[in-house]
Design a protein that fits this description.
With 267 residues, the chain is α/β, with parallel strands linked by helices. It has nine helices and eight strands. The chain starts with a strand and ends in a 12-residue tail after the last helix.
Amino acid sequence: MAFLQVNYYSQVLGMDRVMNVILPELSDHNPNWTAADLKDIPVLYLLHGMSGDQAVWSRRTHIERLVRQTPIAVVMPSTDLAWYTNTQYGMNYFDALFDELPQKIGTLFPQISKKRAKNFVAGLSMGGYGAFKMAFSGQQFSYAASLSGALIGDPNFPGRDSWQNNAYWQGIFGELKKFTGSENDIIALAKKQSAIKQPLPKLYAWIGEQDFLFDNNQQTIPQIESLGYDVTFETSPGEHDWYYWDQKIERILDWLPINYQPEKRLS
């Protein structure tokens, strides 16, 4: 596997950006791989939470080791603190990540698949929200996963006031009284997508039973499932913490249709 830090320019945001990319390559660690295995490679877009950036998944989990023997690319971008959203202050982070970034990936890494069946997205906390939001916003992703996701369908979502003040949230989402039914309401997005009668993404969600977002997930997931989505929803003892996310990212890799091969060697 190659681990790349990619500095690129975003036309949408009008600024330089950074993403980390794990990219399969021929090496002694994978003697059975051929050049054909590294064409049309599946890709997982892995999204960070509020306190993270493009490096946090590689710093706090074993993601690089976990995919070492599985031919899948992992793209880790950053949305700063913008909630994978076109903000009210004119920074269109959602467009930059949903539309522009896959185009950039296609240009820089032509071996990565553009097929919906091989494009996946996952994230934790704010990134869980972002993953579902992206999956519900078009036909780009066939699988989406949320770990401890802030699955917002209500302006009074858990943790709002403790995370940031009201001015911050209005800068991201606009007037909170208008949030429900908006382009940022994932329940509204799921309803809109399901009504179009196009293929729906398969979904996975995990939430710890001691997580402050537990009730949020318990309320939101059944609403999504009732719309016809194939949802695998799991709970177990756990808090809002990297200790659990490091374990559950392997569960996501095993759930994805990629013939996941866990790392067995220490070398």
